[in-house]
Amino acid sequence: MVKFLIDTNVFIQAKNFHYQFCFCEKFWNLILDLHERNILYSVKSVFYELTKNNNKDELVNWVTNNIPESFWLDHDKAASKYIEVINWAHSQKFKEKTISDFADYDAADAWLVSYAAQFNYSIISQEKSNPYAIRKIYLADVAKEFNVPYFTIYEFLTKYTKSDFCYK
């Protein structure tokens, strides 16, 4: 069975745009349903990114009140792969500040790729590939480098769910 890790930006963009709580409750229920089926998870660093500003907006309230602790995987279990990912970043053409931001312990992207690569997960994110960038390390490009399957939320929904947000 394919398992997925979901990125911070999927939650934020869903709340702000196409899947707002006020009119698309089924999307949010899908997240919970897929976790109950042992298909969808994320890493604790995504939780930290979502809640770090102690901002009690609708998304933070939903995340803290509805998603079970078992959803948030311990990214430290992928520490050995994380070292490989960070070493790869250092071997590329990125600016030092870019690498520093990417390697920040509290930033999710390097941890998502590390966990996915080490434990055979796929990643769901809204970030597009930009392999020529030097001022930002794009999650899609790192996932490709480490052979981690990568989906946008729209690609994931098309492939794995029905039109009513139920798992196929």
Number of helices: 9
Low-confidence stretches: none
Proportion of beta-strand residues? 5-15%
Terminus-to-terminus distance: 13 Å
Q: What order do the helices and strands follow? A: EHHEHHEHHHEHEH
Radius of gyration: 16 Å
What is the helix fraction of residues, given as a range?
40-55%
- Backbone shape: globular
Sheet with the most strands: spatial strand order: 3-2-1-4-5
Annotation, overall tally of beta strands: 5
Major sheet summary line: 5 strands, parallel
Counting helices, strands and paired strands, the structural category is alpha/beta
- Please tell me the overall pLDDT: 96
Kindly summarize this structure in a few lines.
This protein has nine helices and five strands, in the order E-H-H-E-H-H-E-H-H-H-E-H-E-H.
Plain-language structure description:
There is one protein chain. This protein has 168 residues and is of the alpha/beta class. Helix 3 runs antiparallel to helix 7 and helix 5 packs across helix 7. It is 51% helix and 8% strand. It has a five-stranded parallel β-sheet. It starts with a strand and ends in an 8-residue tail after the last helix.
